[in-house]
## 1
Amino acid sequence: MAKKKLRSQEWFGREDIYGFLYRSWTKNRGIPHDQFEGKPVIGICNTYSELTPCNSHFRTLAEQVKIGVWESGGFPLEFPVMSLGETLLRPTAMLYRNLASMDVEESIRANPLDGVVLLFGCDKTTPALLMGAASVNVPTIGVSGGPMLRGVYKGKHIGSGTNTWSMSEDVRAGKMPLEEFHEAESCMHRSHGHCMTMGTASTMASMVEALGVGMPGNAAIPAVDARRNVLARMAGRRAVELVKKDVKLSQILTREAFENAIRANAAIGGSTNAVIHLIAIARRIGVKLDLDDWDKLGRDVHTLVNLMPSGKYLMEDFYYAGGLPVVLRTLGEQGLLNKKALTVNGESIWDNNKDAECYNTDVITPWEKPFKKNTGIAVLRGNLCPDGAIIKPSAATPKLMKHKGRAVVFENIEDFHKRIDDPQLDIDEHCIMVLKNCGPKGYPGMAEVGNMPLPPKVLKKGITDMVRISDARMSGTAYGTVVLHSSPEAAAGGTLGLVQNGDIIELNVAKRTLHLHVTEDELAKRRKKWKAPTPPLTRGYYKLYIDHVNQASDGADLDFLVGSSGSKVPRDNH
Ligand code: FES
């Protein structure tokens, strides 16, 4: 059989003026001529940035991938793409996920690349790179940067985000002096890597492994552990093999792989953000996946992993206990894994994980004695959210999962900040806090503010949780009885935008319902008076985003980015 011509040879394999210019300029770094003679060219898509602290070690990681590519006879070429740092980017990194994905897609397609290794870590970098790569569909491997070491403060382990929320509530309730708060800052993030709770970054790193698009061990090896570098080097080697065997990303990201990832998410108590990201990635690669798949597939899965924010341990503990392979093996033993799903190392997901051993059953609990039973992500429906809303039962207070209460409404996040600390605010712990206009269009970018801090007058009574409902997202490191992603969002004319102070709302997670006790006639009257909020900007990327973003239930991608354009350069006159 004739060997398939490499894509990169359409650039480097030519004997005309273009071949000269493609090779000659690339040679300026001292690249020998034989590198252009049919070696697989592997792009290393790097989200290194000093503005993305979680990815600050990616230069080292990229060097390891390069060595691996060379060791396998390939030719590595590193390129930067827009980086999305969760902590510094404002108004929210999620606003730019789709923009970064465009950067990735166009960078891969427009360049002489046969395959690509994606380096991601901080929350949105992972879905952005996978979405972009999915729309091109060349052989692809994902390498996560790995979690930071545990935070340690006053001899106790503290977790990114999770303890930030709890300590900030302690400051607001007058229980923690500011000096201690400042001291804790220095103790929480003390090494390279991304958040070390089971927040969105760790969840997405786990999704990468469960989808089979990352090497075994991708989820949990700490960023500063030498084995993270080994994993990066092995990914470089393997990327060359994937090109030689022409294993495209679409052969890895199948419907079966997404089903495995959804179940893995339930078993690790993963972030609610994964719901939006996986739907968006699936729709880029042409796999049908929707909100109901999350409820259906995750419903019978127990949360096995006892990690913050749902539990008490951190990613470092997870790795030492055996990591995601133990979880995947357990799912396989329960018949909850599509065992034949192909992974990037050439083995099936089952062959990779079937012999995994657990070294600490308090961190990764056995199926028979799970950390939490039948959790997953619950998808709610009702007149308040006809296209769905979600709640993470493992992070919620059991007794609040069936609750009827009086709505206390905040029209937007500014209104919330203005009034929440007011002692005159008419609210108690039985009320339901409702926040509007924080969805994809309304914020814009869907802010992580769904876990609204409780009012001080409630906190002072020792109450730590109330039912909260919004069209916003919640940080993966957060917790509480928080209903998120209500669709359609308020700013798109959803019923959420019509809720008024004093309305009665009923939540029943067991029945998967969320109902606003207001008559249809009354809602119709309110709808007539409703006005869409004024967007904060009416030009540039904000405008493009607000005009084209899909609802959360559809992955919050831009409508014109859904799907794939493949790897062929269109309208090419070279
Ligand atoms: Fe980067 Fe949490 S801030 S992963």
Note: The chain has a mean pLDDT of 95.
## 2
Amino acid sequence: MDFDVKDPGLAEQGRARIEWAAKEMPVLGLIRERFEKEKPLAGIRVGACLHVTTETANLVKTLVAGGAEVALCASNPLSTQDDTAAALAQEQGVRVFAIKGEDNETYYRHLNAVLDFRPHLTMDDGCDLVSTLHKERKEQIAEVLGGTEETTTGVIRLRAMAADGVLAYPVVAVNDANTKHLFDNRYGTGQSTIDGIVRATNVLLAGRTFVVSGYGMCGRGVASRARGMGARVIVCEVQPLTALEAVMDGYEVMPSRDAARVGDVFVTVTGDAHALGREHFELMKDGAIMANSGHFDVEIDKVALGELAVGGVRRVREFVDEYTMADGRRLHLLAEGRLVNLGAAEGHPAAVMDMSFANQALSAEHVVRHAKELSPQVYGVPRELDDDIARLKLDAMGVEIDALTDEQRHYLSSWEQGT
Ligand code: ADE
């Protein structure tokens, strides 16, 4: 069986950690049990480009239980858990091409190894697999029934492809499901970003000035968790409505240039390039720490940071690079500006990935079942699937809720009753 992992000898450790995560993923577990009986993915080759974590391993095992064969590569050079990759490579029907810290060339070689597998279904996180397929391997596109996309950045790229008329097959935007972005992006990114910063630096957050660039779902999560740790939180935003929400959520809101002067810790979660750049680095305090939790390593301008570091760059701890400016100030960049939560920690906890990956598994089934009716565009996750996942998650958490009475249902569908 084809694979490329760091050390197959890590498989046992990986297997134990995959099982540990499985205990926190009851909704995915239920889907896996059904898939085992119904085999909705029989004969389907899935090409997946996802962060290779214990949670992803449980998704892959669910797809295999459904009858699929899977080839998996990393969706970020720094996010692979090598023990997980080793364990998965020994699962029946799974080809894994992923090594933590792989260089750019290896990253794309691995991505192409997944495409060599000639997938019928693409499962992407960030759209690198889909864009490579569309740019460089067009001859294979006719074999693809459809795909799914995990993250905001990937959905933005897919919509741009659809707008340019180049998207050649249907893709379900898993990110847009309520049971995905309201939970994974907010509580997942919130917790795992703080986890990454703390694991990398061991800094005390209480009493620190913590600057969050971007107040989408990810930014909200990071800001609320930083506040919970006792930090003074500042939000930088470009959308007036979103900035207003941040103000009314009780945060200080100001332009990045002003925040640059006072921040101790900076986190970018904008999904856009250069949220922090030269003009900010020039103003930052000695000792400032910068981390990114957006999908790509473009949010902090590493090139400008390197150019300003005339005093040198050195690795002062694992995942912490110190850049010394001409005036002696030392600025710290975590995880090379890549996703700090996956680079320096383990990504989102399994309990939240349970819902994200339940959406992935059900969306894969949906694409295969409805391939003939779907056209080349970006689809949402069907509402019923999203609602089912919410219901199952509540059940699994042992939370009961009320049901509408007949009288209440009638009231909601009538218009005659007023004051
Ligand atoms: N994205 C964020 N956290 C993740 C995780 N734990 N597994 C896979 N993808 C992720």
Note: The radius of gyration is 22 Å.
